[in-house]
Amino acid sequence: MAPTLSKFIDKRTAAGALTISALIWFLKSRSKKRIVKSKNNWPSNDIHYVIKEEKPKGPKAHVNAAFFKQLRLLLSIGIPGVFSVESAYIFVIAASLVARSICDLWMIQTGTLIETSIVNMNAALFKKRLLKFLAILPMVSVVNNVLKYSIGEMKLRLRTNISRYMIDQYLKGFTYYKMSNLDTRIANPDQLLSTDVDKFCESCTDLYSNLAKPMLDISIYVYRLTSTLGGQTPLIMLSYLILAGGFLTHLRKPISQLTVKEQRLEGEYRHIHSRLITNSEEVSFYQGSSREKLTLLASFHKLVTHLRKFLEFRVAIGVVDNFVGKYVASVVGFYAVSIPFLQKNHPILSGTPDHRFKYYYTYGRMLVKLAEAIGRLILAGREMTRLAGFTARVTEIKNVLADLNVGKYERTMVAGLTTNSIGRPGDGKIIAKDNMIRFDCVPLVTPNGDILIKELSFEVKSGMNVLVCGPNGCGKSSLFRVLGELWPVWGGTVTKPPRGKLFYIPQRPYMTLGTLRDQVIYPHTRAEMIRRGNAKDEDLKKFLDLVQLGHLLERETQSNSQGQGWDTVADWMDVLSGGEKQRIAMARLFYHKPQFAILDECTSAVSVDVEDSMYSYCKQENITLFTVSHRRSLWKHHEYYLRMDGRGDYEFKPIDSDTQEFGS
């Protein structure tokens, strides 16, 4: 009867496996046909975008010495010290894992005793042991959930510390600008700073628990089994651990690189979405919906194709993992535990069959737990390989941020570029000096290496208002970017006031998230305004009146139910018109009252009379102006002009009546 039933089960199992395999093959072939039929819905191969290009110098992700070095550096940021709170949580996790292993041992022994009392038909002993088992279970539940809480809190603390470090580096000086405009190594820093850091921390904490628990279990069960059954049984299991672990680690090598590529493609897809949101108005005016749809679909198709290949690879590796890490481990375990029971004259064979059965049941369960621990340790290698991918990604942005903060950047067209006459990015000097701007033999060079002016030399002292003019692409914006330290100086010497005494107002002013007061005092907060003593709310109202926006405060005060006009929060980028935003920017200039102000077409949407009053107030407050404008009405507010011809030549001269007539 038993052999017949066994054969029947074997046949059913084989038939089920074949049926499932055939079903998967059928579904996969159907999905391929569907993809082929809908091929016309995907964009053609002529849809290209810059971030689509492969990066030959991308991060290498392997479980090797470099990985452990990178991991150590990142963990030193996430865990600041031995006596930190994070270290305490590591200890709590370790203690919880020890307690959980002890609970597992206790449950094996208690379960064996309960089942022994059932087999011996001892009802009183069965009830006593069962009640004891029930009384201890709440403690086991507490241990398990303390472990879950500690792992979750550890992940949050790692993410908090690493994210704060990255954000500090990202927003240090103008690093965020340099990463997007000067350096081409990272196209999607938002993906790296948010999603990748989170996944790194999650993978890191999970790996710690997934490695520590099996290693602890292996130590405990090897000790218990060795002391009773001898060393041969655990030795077989540990040998299998080494062989299977090495074999599977070799097979899993591609996972780390596939993980890196997956995150990069996810970042590209998110980046294209964010570009569409940022430039939605321009795309709408051009009626570019169809073209943007093709670009989005091209990026999404590339992502999905990679995810499908990654899924197929993981499934194939998963089959090998389960077979080697679980099922073969169980077979090896059965063989190992049978050795002392099938040997003659072994000490545990003395006694009754019930005694031998109790030994086999208790230590057999321990061996099963040992096999499970070995299987988990083998499978943890898969998580370590995945962690290597996230570690490489986070290390990449960490290294790029460090390079940018010391003035090093890499760009496709500028890497390795050098000429005898110009030099290299950063070869020039910047000297801080109040009430003066001087360019001494400074070349104007774009990040791509295009030379606009070989040597620019002029000097402006406080009170010398300068009008900068010339055709598009002649170097006006490049001059201001060098002056604002956004672009590196390729040579010569730039003498300028410190950053806080030089203020820049672009044609499209930035409106921050916050209150109406925040728009005027940006980038200060209200607390900084009070601490610095720059101005009070009454002074801010005066600045609004100077730019003829006093009605804005009155409107917000009346419309606000609590009468808090300055504290009104709105999406000011949409609430204010173009002219109102430019006037808010001028009020912002009056609040900060710098030594020098760079006005880049910042009054193009303002009427001439309001513009005239604003420039007059700047002169009254001794704010020296560098103005880019095509309006003839502004020549009278300046004493000098700097004209660039777009062919590498320039002239810096005083403005007289003839020059004003020429400018008109």
Give a quick precis of the structure.
With 664 residues, the protein is of the alpha/beta class. The chain has helices spanning 2-37, 65-78, 85-119, 123-170, 175-181, 189-229, 232-251, 253-278, 280-286, 289-342, 353-405, 476-483, 516-521, 526-532, 537-546, 550-559, 572-575, 578-592, 608-620, 657-663; strands at residues 429-432, 436-445, 451-461, 466-469, 493-496, 502-505, 514-515, 569-570, 596-600, 624-628, 640-644, 650-654.
Describe the structure.
The protein is of the alpha/beta class and 664 residues long. The strands form three sheets. It has a six-stranded mixed sheet with strand order 6-9-10-4-11-12, sandwiched between helices. A hairpin with a 5-residue loop joins strand 2 and strand 3. Helix 3 runs antiparallel to helix 4, helix 3 runs antiparallel to helix 11 and helix 7 packs parallel to helix 11. The protein is elongated and about 120 Å long. The N terminus is likely disordered.
**How much helix, percentage-wise, in residues?**
55-70%
The overall average pLDDT, rounded, is: 79
Strand line-up of the largest beta sheet? 6-9-10-4-11-12
Shape: elongated
Query: What is the number of beta strands?
Result: 12
Structural category? alpha/beta
Largest sheet: 6 strands, mixed
Any idea what the radius of gyration is?
36 Å
Task: Estimate what percentage of residues fall within beta strands.
Answer: 5-15%
Poorly predicted ranges = 1-9, 33-39, 52-57
How many DSSP H or I helices? 20
> How far apart are the first and last residues' alpha carbons, in Å?
110 Å
